[in-house]
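Summary of Year 1 activities. Much of the first year was spent building the evaluation harness for sequence design. The harness presents a backbone, in tokenized form, and records the residue chosen at every position. We chose the following record to illustrate the format because it has been used consistently in internal testing since the harness was completed.
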């Protein structure tokens, strides 16, 4: 079974939507394998989004991602990476399909409620960024 990483972002947590977002994902067939709440440091946010370092929105993105707690979640499902990206919708909520997480809960292209890994390689890397091997062994089944 394939795994991917979601992050329920600070805007959704602060708006009291974390439970609704997680419920939406579980309703879409994902199993929660590991989860925690954390507030990213500047160094952690810069490292996580290092691929975007040269983009004009990078410093604003880092400010947003460090503005409050977020909830990294390891999700499991068949075809998890592709399915999660479909379930959350386009980066910009104005372009996201009806019924997607971002259409329902995101505020803007930056404050867009949720992150999802964009490939299986990145999913492995991003899961390892937040969770240890033993975290992923704690859920039986
Ligand atoms: P995410 O899927 O976490 O990956 C990179 C993030 O950068 C993205 O979601 C948005 O939060 C943010 N982002 C991407 N493009 C833009 C943009 N054009 N302006 C502002 N923020 C953006």
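For this record, the design step produced the sequence shown next.
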């Amino acid at each position: 079974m394939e795994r991917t990483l979601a992050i329920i972002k600070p805007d959704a947590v602060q708006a009291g939507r974390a439970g609704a977002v997680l419920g939406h994902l579980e309703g879409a067939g994902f199993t929660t394998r590991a989860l925690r709440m954390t507030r990213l440091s500047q160094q952690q946010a810069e490292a996580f989004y290092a691929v975007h370092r040269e983009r004009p929105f990078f410093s604003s993105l880092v400010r947003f991602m460090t503005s409050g707690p977020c909830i990294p979640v390891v999700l499991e499902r068949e075809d998890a990476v592709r399915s999660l990206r479909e379930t959350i919708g386009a980066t910009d909520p104005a372009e996201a399909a009806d019924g997607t997480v971002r259409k329902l809960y995101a505020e803007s292209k930056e404050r867009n409620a949720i992150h999802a890994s964009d490939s299986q390689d990145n999913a492995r890397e991003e899961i390892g960024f937040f969770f240890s091997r033993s975290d992923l062994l704690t859920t039986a089944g």
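Residues 52, 57, 61, 91, 109-110, 112, 115 surround adenosine-3',5'-cyclic-monophosphate (CB under 6 Å). Quantitative recovery figures across the full test set are reported in Table 2.
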